[in-house]
């Protein structure tokens, strides 16, 4: 089972994920995710570093092939820059017996959905989901995707924006985006979205700085249509309209 | 409250969404979503057609401004082609008092995440989320986004692929994509993903036909890297690798 825990707190867990966790004999994953579901001294935990996805998936599959019920844990959704792809990859490369295993992938609320919900609906129209990590792809490809999506008027959710090992990527991405998007385009830094220490900051692209993000931050780049609704005594609502310019459904002659 | 119910069945509901539903005085939404949480004869239901988002949001906000606790329901996640954006839009356009309301947006498992989980991890790397409906945007813009994302090597989740009122859009989208993507590119038709009658069909782009989709179908277009792992007596696993070609983390000299 490859299980999405949702972002940060138990309240994001689905019934399906809770049931799956209850049936597991083993809990594999990156330490902080495993900590969310079993006690530190639980003998069923098998934690590993967050750069060891391939080895972690192989070990879990070997155990599953011996008949054990193994839970592979992901924060957010396992299908978005997480363990589901790594498990599929190892099944393809591994012994034929692994193809006979029952693989249940249990979706979860992804970080980008929690981040968007925390500030309004910035992903309310067409958008892209991109990882800024160049560990597994060349930086040139990341820039190409950023520019293709920005150029096509799409909002973007950026995963893995920055880390100690990758300090410059977000800054360069913001520079490239400033070359093609209006300086007034909204940028949301959603830190720890869905957790008690959640912190949402919205600035214009012109003023956005890479230092506003850390490893726990999801960055959302609005489209040029994304809007900010100021509210007294509350954070602003940030949303991307459901319609393209000139296609407002409530303006009778707007469809053209 | 704008609440994501997840796709189809109660097992996708999060604890947070269940708690929010329990506190609501009124349930607004498209009929099939309201049916999932309150009985047909419940006086707290206010159902409306799925083309009336603006009016539905206004009515709910008026009631909320009178002090009622109103639940606006969305299938999947409310922030992805659903009610969160419509509610923000009406708050921006409505009376100043609406800006003082407490708006809780409760994220949910979106249809694309459930569809991806049902077949493997086709959205396991950079991807785009696009609506094929040209009700609120010009078709030319949709084609531009499809080609920009396909050209940049991204997978795509296509919402609203087809309906009685929009019968030709998916067919034309597939034609355009055939002009830029390999005929072997994988296309997934995920019908009723996450429901008891779920039906997942994977074909090559060459063989994909618009008639394979209906209103309840989410279509995923793989990238050219998306792979199919055949399994005995089980549906194949479809996944998009975590790495770009030549950047396989398990091939020591692959990073270049």
UniProtKB/TrEMBL annotation, chains A, B:
GO terms for molecular function: methyltransferase activity. Residues 229-256 are annotated as: Disordered. Pathway: Cofactor biosynthesis; adenosylcobalamin biosynthesis. One of its GO terms (biological process) is methylation. Gene3D superfamilies: Cobalt-precorrin-4 Transmethylase, Domain 1, Methyltransferase, Cobalt-precorrin-4 Transmethylase, Domain 2. Keywords: Cobalamin biosynthesis, Methyltransferase, S-adenosyl-L-methionine, Transferase. This is Precorrin-3 methyltransferase. It comes from the Bacteria. Residues 2-207 form the Tetrapyrrole methylase domain. Residues 245-256 have a biased composition (Basic and acidic residues). The lineage of its organism: Bacteria, Pseudomonadati, Pseudomonadota, Gammaproteobacteria, Oceanospirillales. InterPro entries: 4pyrrol_Mease, 4pyrrol_Methylase_sf, 4pyrrole_Mease_sub1, 4pyrrole_Mease_sub2, Cbl_synth_CobJ/CibH_dom, Precorrin_MeTrfase.
